[in-house]
Amino acid sequence: MGSRFLGAWIGAAAALLLACTAHAQIGTKGFSLPKAGATATKAAAEPSESSELVQVTATQSAPSVAPGATVDVAIAFTIPAGWHIWVHETQARALPDVAVFEGALFTTLSLATETSGLRLIGVQWPAPHTAKADVGEGPRSYAVYEGSGTIFARLQASSDAQGEVATELVLSVQACNATNCLPPGEVRVPVQVRVQVGAAAPAAGAAFASLDPARMVADSGADASTATEPIDGAIRFDFFGANFDVDPRGTGLLLVLLVAFVGGALLNFTPCVLPVIPLKIMSLSAAAGDRARCLRLGLVMSTGVVAFWLGLGLLVGGISSFTAANQLFQYPAFTIALGLFIAVMALGMAGFFSVNLPQWVHGIEASHETAGGSFVMGVMTAVLSTPCTAPLMGAAAGWAASSGSMPTVLAVFGTIGAGMAAPYLLLSAYPNLTRGMPRSGPASEVVKQVMGLLLLAAAAFFVGAGLNGLRATPGPEHWWLVGAIGVAAGLWLAWRTIRLARRHLTRALFVSLGLLIAVLSVGITRALGVESVGWIPYSAETLAKAKSEGKVVVLDFTAEWCLNCKALESAVLHRADVVDALAVPQVVAIKVDITNRRSDGWNLLHAYDRVSIPLLVVQSAEGKVLLKSDAYTPEQVLNALKQAAQD
Fold it and tell me: What's the Cα-to-Cα distance from 352 to each of 11, 253, 346, 481, 491, rounded to whole Å?
């Protein structure tokens, strides 16, 4: 393939570095909102974290409640003069004539995940203030909380709860003054309620004078009584209907790492990574004559894969606002840059151009099978895997991200990387497995051209998904271009086989394969380019309304850049019997699209203890989570809907 792709490699690496750096800066410093007359506090006197600045006091409406009843908590906060915190995200987006900074760390309220017996069903946020700032788009007004105010939280006791129930409400904030922002922090508000039969209804006190139930919205939507796993502290894994729990404490951590390893290995079979595997097989075939060299290059590539996942672990463990690898794809610039990089690589592989580069760059080019090139190939393979989440991997990564322990995060993410790298290491250790691939001549060129076209289809997917991130309402139109390129790849394989193959069996086999690729491309385009379910776009208000009306809620967490999501939706949610079950009046099907940062669905995803997609949640009218899975089957969805209708 010659020295064709160095510029593309550098461009992709730069795009990834810039995206990560920008996210790191947003997560740790944010930006300041200058206000008229505001004076900056001296750096030496500043608290080290936002939680040290925001002071709260809490008042409960009653010390005891009956099973199934509710209790309110008034959280009064005070912020020193000259400082402010961000408002809640859904509130910011609902305010007219107020801009929304997409990198903001908005204020959230959640229930501690270790809680059982209580669930958070509603929050009333205080009226915001406005502050003017210029963050590069001209002076604009932004919504903030400042001075003092009160947040009201409504908790509901489980119908089977009894005795003392102790928990904490977690208020996540970031405080800013006129010159800088403090690192984000959490203010924990202890709550203790006695649940007993016959407890009197709470009497409203002075602290609840401004409480208005009509203004309450579902802050997260998660059912805290069922969000925790059946075994206390355990992680629930769902592999297409096969559920099992793993307790990560003690030696159980080794089992969690084993599951993470398997999940990493399964990443290679997701739609994101599949186009890359033939490339590596071809390169290993070229080096198969020297087994020691082939093994060395495989080890270096595996190191690149693991290094990328460890880098993601550092971001997840070190930056509070960064919780998942696929968050990078919420930045359209990153997704489009990655798509353009893949396009350049695809065109070069197909032989449409060749760029002569200086001799010194050959040492790091992947096509020359050098150590540097193999490392870059490993990083690229890992980058391509990030839009997808393999079965088993999502729950493990989510648990690690929420653990708050950097060693745990690095152990889990590093193990995911090791699992992903394992098949390539196996192929490099046994290069004879790749000897069937053509190494030179017309047949080899046809394989490269077809793989180049398929990679070009992948490039069209990423560019289209990135452009969707710039739209207010993402759409599937780019799938038609992806399908057209796939059809071209299949027909080209069939045509070139007819012209080159001399043996009838070879001709029949590869012509059939080419036609199959073309037919599958048409089928995939029709399946993914058309929506079969009448989804309602997610908003906190929509979810709260569905719950208040006693509807069964189905939440589909998805994004235009998530190939796994699209594959599951097509195979499961677009099936006729599932479509019919979702269309009944008592079911509200809500699509939580997190294609871009304008979506407030990311906080809702975290409320269900997940940091990656796909995820499907089926919740009964009573708020019980009947299905929460990233690898679900039609039978699971139908059974959950049937059970919800009976509850």
Answer: 19, 50, 9, 19, 18
Q: Please provide the DSSP assignment of 79-130 as one string.
A: --TT-EEE--HHHHHHSTT-B--TT----EEEE-TT--SEEEEEEEPPPPEE
Amino acid at 222: A
Q: What pLDDT is recorded for position 30?
A: 37
Q: Among 61, 67, 70, which residue's Cα sits nearest to residue 197?
A: 67
At 168-201, the pLDDT tens digits run 899 999 888 877 778 888 899 999 888 887 666 6
Q: How many whole angstroms from its chain centre is CA 435?
A: 38
Query: Which tokens hold the place of 29?
Result: 């410093």
How far, rounded to the nearest angstrom, does the alpha carbon of residue 68 sit from its chain's CA centroid? Answer: 33
| Cβ-based burial of 232 (10 A; exposed 0-12, middle 13-18, buried ≥19) | exposed
Task: Say how many Å lie between the first and final Cα of the chain, rounded.
Answer: 62
Rounded-to-integer distance, Cα 560 and Cα 466, Å: 8
From CA 427, how far away is CA 285, in angstroms rounded? 10
Q: Which domains does the chain have, with CATH numbers?
A: 1-29+232-437 (no CATH), 31-228 (2.60.40.1250), 440-470+477-526 (no CATH), 536-646 (3.40.30.10)
Nearest CA-CA partner of 56 in 116, 120, 109, 111: 109
DSSP 137: S
> Helix, strand or coil for residue 526?
helix
Instruction: Give residue 341's pLDDT.
Output: 79
Residue recorded with tokens 């193999």: 374
pLDDT at residue number 20: 36
Nearest to 468 by CA among 281, 596, 643: 596
The answer to whether the beta carbons of residues 336 and 462 sit under 8 Å apart is yes
Q: What is the mean pLDDT of residues 377-399?
A: 73
Tokens 């463990």 found at: 317
Q: How far apart are CA 619 and CA 608, in angstroms?
A: 12
Cα dist from 501 to 451, 454, 509, 510, whole Å: 18, 22, 10, 9
- Look at 108-117, 237-246, 634-643 and tell me which has the smallest mean pLDDT: 237-246
Count of H helices and E strands in the chain?
19, 19
Q: What is the pTM of this model?
A: 0.51
59-103: pLDDT as tens digits: 998 888 887 778 889 999 999 988 989 898 877 777 767 787 766
Contacts of 503 (CB under 8 A, 6+ apart): none
Q: How far apart are CA 417 and CA 411, in angstroms?
A: 10
Confidence of residue 439 (pLDDT cuts 50, 70, 90): low
Which tens digit of pLDDT belongs to each residue from 483-512?
Answer: 899 899 899 989 988 888 888 888 898 899
Q: Distance (Å, rounded) from C-alpha 42 to C-alpha 219?
A: 35
Q: If we measure between CA atoms, which residue out of 144, 112, 141, 140 comes closest to residue 126?
A: 144
Cis bond before residue 96 (omega within 30° of 0): no
In order, the DSSP letters of 443-503 are HHHHHHHHHHHHHHHHHHHHHHHHHHTTSSS--STHHHHHHHHHHHHHHHHHHHHHHH--S
pLDDT at 292: 80
> Measured between alpha carbons, how far is residue 137 from residues 28, 99, 132, 293, 332 in Å?
21, 10, 12, 53, 18
Q: CA 96, CA 561: separation in Å to the nearest integer?
A: 30
